[in-house]
Amino acid sequence: MTSVLLHHFDASPFSEKIRLLLGYRDLAWGSVCIPRMMPKPHFTALTGGYRKTPALQIGRDIYCDTALIVRVIEKLSGAPSLVPSYQAASVRALEEMGDRLFLAAIPIIFRPEGRAALVDQIGEEGLARFQADRAGLFSGGNLSRPDDQFSRAVWAPTLEALEAQLAHQPFVLGEHPTLADFSLYHPIWYVRNNPGVRDVVEDYPALMAWFKRLQAFGHGRRHEMSEAQAHDVAASCDHWQPLEGEFDQSLGLAEGAAVTLQAVDYGVDQVQGRLVHVSQEVLTLERDATFEGRTLGSVRLHFPRDGFALSPA
């Protein structure tokens, strides 16, 4: 299988979703640990300014956003899809539930007990930097930073619904895991990973049994790589990953056009490049990457269409 590199940090919940999927598929992967907060100079040299964690690198192709990354891993693994056709609508709906659950988890982490645990981990100064960084992440998009009122309205009712469903089956949609399980796992992992607020998920026995079944998949065959080594991989690669589908002309943009792309919800930093491909599901740009005066060559950035806006530069 083509070697994959995951740019991530250990405390990242969305990275945990991908790490668990790599474990479920028993894949070997390069672990490229990046900073938890901006600046991320090695990372953004490859991504053109996109800052969200994680990103997946294959040679000089960079895949951004977990919605796309999970589908890339599925194709590379060659295993049956985690989105069976007869459950596709249910999986998509539960993915969105997972996104809401993650947003509901954020205020929980910053409750007094959770905040105290964060101070133990990164110190008062580190926590102040972290909060300022995340405030910037939620600036400018169409999604506001969630508050405790939202959290209380979403968190417990969602966990109660999952508890009732999982009392009768090992995974969310039946006897076998689907992408829905991975999408719901990481917000719960995020809260359980903070010892100050871990108890808010402990009173759901069926949910915790499900959580442990997923946790047992592990993280696959991980080997550490530096950010400089990831740059070397991009600079030395002489081919692209294949593109899928016909070029979609509906956006009125031609191949090679100078374009700007950004997320619409949060983390809306703009990326500029040359348009390579537009399929029904994926937007692909090409740009020239440099780092501290070193030319890394052209890289291609791939984003899901859903959740990203593309416009002429």
From TrEMBL:
InterPro entries hit by this protein: Glutathione-S-Trfase_C-like, Glutathione-S-Trfase_C_sf, Glutathione_S-Trfase_N, Thioredoxin-like_sf
Pfam family, one: GST_C_2
Residue intervals of the GST N-terminal domain: 2-81
GST C-terminal domain segment(s): 84-243
Descriptive protein name: GST N-terminal domain-containing protein
PROSITE patterns, alphabetized: GST_CTER (PS50405), GST_NTER (PS50404)
Membrane-spanning residues: none
